[in-house]
Each structure stands twice: as C-alpha cells, then as structure tokens.
Amino acid sequence: MIEKCSIPGVPLREIVMIFFLVFAVQEIFGYKTQGWRRALCIAGYILSCGALLLLFYWKPEWDVWANCIRCSLEEADIVLLRTTDEFRIYSRKTVTWISVSALIRSRTDYPATAEEDSIFSKAIMKPSLQVKSIQVQKIRYVWNIYAKQFQKVGALEDHLTCSAIHAKFGSGLTCNEQNVRRVICGPNSIDVPVIPIWKLLIKEVLNPFYVFQLFSVCLWFAEDYMEYATAIIIMSLLSIFLTVYDLRQQSIKLHRLVESHNNIMVTVCRNKEGFQELESHHLVPGDTLVLKEGKTLLPCDAILISGQCIVNESMLTGESIPVTKTHLPQADNFEPWRMHCAEDYKKHVLFCGTEVIQTKADDRGVVKAVVLRTGFNTAKGDLVRSILYPKPMNFKLYRDALRFLMCLIAFAAIGMIYTVCVFVLNGEEAGEVVKKALDVITIAVPPALPAALTTGIIYTQRRLKKKGIFCISPQRINMCGQLNLICFDKTGTLTEDGLDLWGLLPSERNCFQDIHNFPADHSLPWGPVFRAMAVCHSLIVWQGKIQGDPLDVKMFEATNWVKLCFVAAPVEGVTILHQFPFSSALQRMSVIAQEIGGEQQVFTKGAPEMVAMLCRAETVPSNFESKLLLYTAQGFRVIGLACKSLQAGKQSTDLTREEVESDLTFLGLLIMENRLKRETKPVLEELSAARIRSVMVTGDNIRTAVTVAKNAGMISATNRVILVEANQVPGSFSASITWKPLEENKTEDYRSLTERKIRLALESGQYHFAMSGKSYQIVAQHFRHLLPKLLLNGTVFARMSPGHKSSLVEEFQKLDYFVGMCGDGANDCGALKVAHAGISLSEQEASVASPFTSQTPSIACVPELIREGRAALVTSFCMFKYMALYSTIQYLGVLLLYWQLNSFGNYQFLFQDLAITTVIGVTMSFTGAYPKLVPYRPPSQLISPPLLLSVVLNILFSLSMQIFGFVVVQEQPWGQTHSTALSADGALEQTDNGYKSYENTTVWLLSTINCLIVALVFSKGKPFRQPIYTNYVFVVVLIVQLGICLFLVFADIDDLYSKMDLVCTPTTWRISMVIMLAVTLAVSFLVEEAVIENRPLWLLLKKTFRYHSKSQYKRLQRVLEEDSAWPPLNETFFSDSVTISVEGNMGGHSNPTFDSNEDAL
Whole-prediction pTM value? Predict the structure, then answer.
C-alpha cells in the first residue's frame, strides 16, 4: 500500500509513502532526467578522473539531484526513496515500462475477473497498453493511473470477500488473464542469484576505507616508502579476499535455501479449459491450484477453498508439528475475507515453503487453493527479504567513531597548514611540499583504523562459535555489551519443551470429583472424559508415528487407546467427522465425532475460562474459579474439556462453529505440568545480580506465567504482583483499565493484612505489573500515556500474540532500553529480529533471520553472550584509543621534525607501523571475557568524559615527553655539533637520506616505546575482560617488542643504526630517555587507574554536579519515585476514544504463519 503524506515546502501530490511490512516506511520523490544536466555530469566524471562518479556511487541522492529535475511521480523516470527513520537512507530506482500490448489485442481481452477495482486493470495505460513500475527490495510496485500512486502487485486484493474469492477464482483464470497477470506481476520465484565474484570485488574495493587506503599507498610509493605500502597492499588484498569469500558463501547458502521452491510442477484449473500442468514460476495471484495426494512443497501462499490439508510448517515455525488447514467459508457478507476470519484466517492459508503431507477432499471432489501471494510477497519471500535487507542499527559507538575520524581529519588539516608554511618558508619545491602535506593525512588518520576496530568482533565471534552460539550479524556483538533488559519466551525457553500430564479433575452433576493422577495404576474409565481425550485433538499418523502438538500427544497417550483396541475395546471405533482447529483468538478447538453405530457428539477443549463460558451454567461447578486458581497458581497448565450430543439428521459440514460450540456440558479440567529447565533459575539470578531486567513474554495463561516467574526468580517472594486489566466498554469506543493485586481469595483479615503489605511494597518500589496481550493492546490504543509507566515495572506479559511480542520489544526500545529477546525461534521470530540482540534456541529455518542462534536449547547462552558482548565493546574502545594515540604520537613526532625540515625514515615508519602497531592490533583483542557479570555496563559511546579524558591526557603526556626530548637534545653540546654538520654538509645529507640527526633519533625512540606504553595502559582487564596476563600472546609480543626497542636504544651497531637512520648518542642521554619513558609510563598508568577507571570517583562527580541519565526509562523512574499516587491500586480509569493501532505498528521481521498482521502494507 502507498499513502500520501505532507512534508513542509513540498507539494502533496509529489510525495507518497511506501509502507514495507518488514522494513522502514519510505518517502518517494519523482525526478525527470535532463539532457544538459546529464552532459555536464559526464564532463565532470571525465575531468575528475572518475572521482565525481565515485562520490555519486556513495551518495545516490546527489547523483539524482545533479542529473535530474523534480517532477510529479506521474512524469518521473527516476524515483528517489528516503527512509523516515533516524538514518534517512536514500536509494535510487529507475522507472521501467512493461508492455502488455502483445496480450491485449481487443477490448474482450482485458482481464475479466480482475474487474474495475483490481490493480491489474487500473495499472494498464491506454492506448499504449503499458504498465509503469518500480522494484523496491525485490517487491514490484505498479502505477495506479486512477489513484495516482504506486501500488504493490503480486498479491490478491485485500478487499475481496469470502464469497468473491470462491465466485471469481473458484474455477480458475483464463489463459489470457493468467498471461496478463504474469507479465505485470513477474515470475513466481524467490530468486536469490549467487552474486558473481567480480561484483562482490568491485563493491568491496569501492568502499571508502579501501579508497582511502589506495590514496595512501599511491602517496607512499611516490615517496619510495615501498615496504610498508607493499605490506598494506598484501593485508588489504587478504582482507578483501576474506570478505568476498564470506559474502560469496553467504550468497551460495541463501541461494540453496530458496532454489528448491522455484522449480516445482503444479496443476492449475483453467476457466472453461479444465486442468493444466505448468511450472510453478508461472503462477500468478488468482490462479487455482489443485492439490493432489502425497507430499507437495508449496511454491506460493494460497487460500484453501475446498477440502482439508495437513501441513508441515517447520520451515516457518521451527516446530515439526503437523498443522490442519480448513477451507475458506463461503460467507455471504461484505466484509473482506481476512476481517471476516479475524485471527483465524491463517487456518485457511497454505504458506510458501511449507509441505502439504496429507489432503482430504470434500463433496466437491478435489482439494483446491487460490494463489494468494507470489514470489517475494510470500511468507518465505518475506523471510528471505529480512536477510537480504536487515534493519539498520543505530549504535552510538559507530556514530561516535565517525565523528572522531572527522576530528582526526580536522587535526590533520591543521598539520597540513603547518607543514605547508614551514616548507614554503624554507624554499622547498612545490611537489615536495604537496607530498609532505598529504603525508600528514595518512599519519593523522590511520588507514588501518576500521580494520583494527573489527578484530575484536572477529575474535569474539570465534569464541562464541566454540560455545555453540552462531552469529549472522557480527555488528550486533558490541550491542550485546549494552543489553539491560531481556525478554524471554516461556514454553521451550524458560520451561521444558514438552508438557507432562499431571492429573485430571473430572466433573459430574455440577461437582468436581476426585482427582485422577498420571501415571496411575488403573486406567481412565470409559466415558465422556475418556472420549474427549481420545478424539479432541489434531493428531495424525505420519511416517508410522503419531505426530502433532505435544499436548495432544500426551493427552492421547494417557488414554492407552492403542492397548484398548487390542485388549478390551468398549466400542468398535470412533470416527472424527469434522474438525474446528485450535484458534489462538478463540482459545479452543472442537471436533465432531461419532462412535460406530452411535450418535454424533461435539468435544471441545481449550482455555478453561473460555470453555466454561460456552457450557450450560448448571454443568459448571460452583467452585470452578477457586479450583482453577489453585492449580494455575502452582504453575500448572490447565485445559478445560466439554461435550454435547448433536441432533440426529444434521450434516456436520453444514454446522457453523458458533452452533457447534454452544450449550456444552462441562466435563472437567486436564492438568499439565511444565517444569522449569535446570539452567533457568541460576541464569535469571545471575542477570538480576548484574542489574539486567528479565521480562516474560508468553502465550500462556497469566496466572501460570506469574507462578513460573516466581519459581524462576523473576519475581521475588517479597515483591507484589499487580494485575493490569483493560477492557473495551461494551457498546462504545471507550475502554477501562483496572489495577488490582494478584492474590488468592482469603479471609477479610488476611485481605486487609495483604493490602497493608502491598502498600509497603509499592512505596519501596517492589512491585511488578502483569497483563495479558488483550490488555496490552487496549492500553496501547486507549491509554497510550500510561504504557511507558506500565512497561517500567511490567514483568509478565501473557497471552501475547507474535505481533504483540514485536510491538512490546519496540516499546521497550523507545524507553531507551537495550533489549535482548530469547525465544525458540517459532512465534518469536518477529521479536527476535526487532530486538537489539535476538537469540534463537531453535536451528530451524524459521530462526534464520535471528542475529544469534544457540546450539544448546537453554538460556545459559544469554549471560554468555552479554559477557562476550561487553568484552568486545571494551576491546573496541581499547583498540580505538590505541589507534588514535599511535597515530597522534607519530603525527606529533613528524611535525616536530618538520620544524627542522626532517622526518622519520622509511624503515623507522615501517618498524612503528608494521612491527609495533600491526602486531599489537592483532594480539590486543585476544583477551577473553571476564567470567562474572558486574552490575553495570561499559560506556556505549566514545564521546564520554572518561574516554575522552583518557585520550586527551595521554596525548598531552606524549606531547610533553617528545617536546622535552626534542628541545633538551638540541641544548646538548654534542647534539648541536651533529645537527650543524648534517645541515652544512650537503653530501652527508644526501648519503644519510636527510633523516639522521640527534633530534630524529631521540623523537623516534621516545615515540616508538611510547606506543608500547599506551598499548599496555589501554589493555583493560577487569571488570569486563580477563586480566592482561591471561593474554599470553599479547604479553609475549609486548616483551619482545620492548626488548628490541631497548636493544636499539643501547646498541652501537653501525650497520643497524645506518639502516634505521639512527645516530649514536652518549650513554647518559640514552639513560635519560629511558627515565623519561619510565616517568611517562608511571604517570599514564597512575592516571588511568586512579582517575579514568575509578568508578566511585565518577559516581561522586555525577552526584556533585547533579548529572542524571538522559535515558527515557531513567527519567520516568525519577518521576514515578516522586508520585505517591502511582500505581493506583484497586482503581479503574476510563478512556474517551481509540488513538493508536498497536498491531499496525509492527517493526522488524514478522512471521506470517503466526502473525495476524502481514497485511500491514
């Protein structure tokens, strides 16, 4: 869908907003290419030797603005897209024309089923019979000539009703209609071609980092600095090769993931022409598929319009549980089909990439499905797009790194001006002045800086892999170091995957009977409860095994039905005539079954509260609520059972679900146990000790969820739980919200005592909110201003749909939390993608979009990831500080020597750049993560007072030492003699390359060993990384480098000194230099430990200057601490009207199999 928006100063008709399901909203602007502008740009490309073309490659919007003029979208041949998020990323798209004239020769050839309100008829321009289109992130949009906007093709229109789908597409499209749609929509294929190596190579080489390296290398070759230039070329080529290889492997892997769906033979219905076999890439929305017996891989999304299917959706859900699909009802109303079916519409949709394992035809003969979506519009295509176009991250470290680079460039500009002035005033040649000035840039801005920053991430990724945690988005590793809130799914994540049957509480004559425990010595007696457990499920026999929902399997196995069939079967058999599959919206499932020779009966199972509402009041025990509370409060999963007999003579297929699921007889409660995983409690305690919030987001019952949260340690025994309930006010657009303590019903005395305890807990801030998905949605719609306050202490969110989970994660992010999401990769897929760090405990394809995947299905990976993330983040800071200091030390030394028209020699540069800095850069990052999580996080930005102070002070220490050495050496009588001789004797200067001098020797030795000092000082250990002595390689490297440097200081080997452009100095001066270095080391180390790393000192300064965190959640905490009326216990508020739609506010990757909102376009 595309909607118009208004932007100040721009005509309304010229801007539209393209809404992408998974990706950011984008604004679109129309442009028309102008010939003279194009000619000027080509001339600019030639005159700039391609530099302008490279700039336009990096900045596509500048390319469009230079070559084109603004126009309406109707006239445009180029469109410019801009995301509306904080990144404001531009992309350029060319408008293409699709001709359908060869297919439409007369008026009768126009698509008949695609009537006037169809995009296919609205997109064809007459009389040219062409369609105007653009392709954005693999999705094709065509120009609607009536609405004057681009609209998506490749999917059936949303406005179609159930009856319209049956009437228009039930008998299929004609050949001509199919051909027209195919040309407009494009092929039904999720085509991810393997990117050629030359393309990957060019894209990588044109990275600004490598372009700057190329500039540096060319300059070094011009200055005969061959060795280091060659070393940089080798390292760059190696880096490019590894990156291209990695990208190529990813491309091959993704290609293999999708290629199987592009070449499948299918059977379709042709209107008035019978059945036709064709390849699946020819399918279009509206085609009618015929599903035959046996396994079938679905090449598209389709709506089942006749018969029934059993589908394996493990590709999308991560769970190998067969799912039953029923046909779309022929409802005769004016509601769009998806609105009519509400959240149950997924029960009628077969998703691309899933496998049909069984089909069952009805009285209409064959099983048919209408193609709903094709290509990248499908569920599978959407998953692939989420990998191809991941959500960009906004992490302060990378933004600050760019700012710091800009500062270094500004720093370099000052040095260039200084260099030009010094060399020009001394009468140097213009060419030499230019080379020296440009050289300052390559010194001040180290070309190896970006590579050095990524080394820590690469090593961390390797360590994580050894621990069974795989990462497809390495940039997110640093973000893991900032996580301060983790959302956990319950079932399969905090608790064991399977449920164990604990007991059955049968009900007869309005009273609960004695509980029947499992496993029991005696079998369950034959009766209505036994029959309900034997037939009310969606199990199938597949590959010789009973398969289906684990809950259903446990329930069926408890009946011992297989044994009964061979020993003492009370009946010949039971036939399941019709099934109403489980619906998360209705919270129940039902079947119509018949004993052989007996009457037809309805059996229903589901959420106890829902089942009780459908039963006749006289059959529900009076103590139903207290019994339910008793078991849910203990953390049991409770299922309600009910049944009724059907009147003879009625066809089961003619009955609606509402008729079937009414006036039921309550049969009892099935009680199931869901045990906590062994690792759950210790992990949550560790996170709590580290002041990392834990939140439960589950689809289970709220009381069960609260009990599990208490057992797991999320909610301590002294803390109170407040249930937040929000409801729509019947017959109006307003809603109500109520806060009440979640306590068991006890005596008045107990209740008054409890209320006093709760009030004390509230005053001390020891309370937690619990709410259901329904309440969450109503709060987000009607009480938007209360949502942040509720999230601040919200710990349990129950009955949450996948859409709710993604929305909740985003709402936490809006409060400036760094949010992690840990789930089993099934219905958590959307939230896993939206979170700063999504950790999937499933290795199924469904979780392929999750940044992190754990081989071990337990939450023990969460603290491990946070530990490694913190270590990687601190390593990045250490490397950044070191690289900034190394370049500044070298920069200051060179500028000092420029004062005498001198500089470092090539081998001196080579030793500092290669033997010192490169080796340190590679080994410094080897330090592992500290095993204990401390209750605070490392800084998230470079522009923080401690970090900046550390860099600035160390620069001042280096500058002081170098200037002191430079000035003092000149005042020595032996120093003046050598310098004068060197300057006066031109021949000697020629022989010595103009570098040998006491000043050069002093400054170079001081700056080289200074690089080792800052490497040692900046190599932080505790509390986020292990002590430096555990990094044996780095310690050995430092010792060897220091040994070599001291050898160079005290050695008197003429050949070595000549090669290194050094001169021999008196021993007293060498000892003086060592003393200067020792003082610098002591001062640097003392300042770093006593000031920079002194956390109590910085906390005291914050308190003294009344500095408060700017994070939204911290601000809100301070406000609520002063609000004595919060939370309003046992109070009810009312709203006026609906304000915001939560479900429409989805972000990140959503899994259409679970999510009811893939129509958010």
Answer: 0.77
